[in-house]
Amino acid sequence: MLRTLGDAYKVQAMAGERLTAWKGLHAATLGAAEALDLAGEIGSLEAGRLADVCVWDWAAGPVAERRQAVARSLHEKVFAWMTLGDERNLAACWVAGVPRLPRPPGQPR
Asked: What residues have CB less than 8 Å from 43, skipping those under 6 apart?
């Protein structure tokens, strides 16, 4: 989904639109669940919902790290992560409550 968010931003920009980080995150989570008529089951962290959860590092690699260093607001940080992030940012993942992709201690990004 992270690459899809980055690509969505690029497609929207080519169409003259601006995709904010908040709209992108909504589209990838609750917005997608609503479109599938599954908002009562997935798409949020509300009690009783199913969720696969990933933990992400803000930045991986020199370009992203420089961009994060100058980000002033939470939106700027999320936007930089959304547009510059990739699989190197993934720190851990749980699918249906089962850990699937923990980063081993000391593993470089």
From this structure: 29, 30, 31, 32, 33, 34, 49
Which is nearest to 38 in space by CA: 25, 22, 26, 50? 50
Under DSSP, the state recorded for 102 is P
| Per-residue 3-state assignment (H helix, E strand, C coil) for 30-45 | HHHHHHCCCCCCCCCC
Other beta carbons less than 10 A from residue 97's beta carbon: 9
Instruction: Report percent pLDDT > 70 for the chain.
Output: 93
Res. 78 pLDDT band, cuts 50 70 90: very high
Give the global pTM.
Answer: 0.81
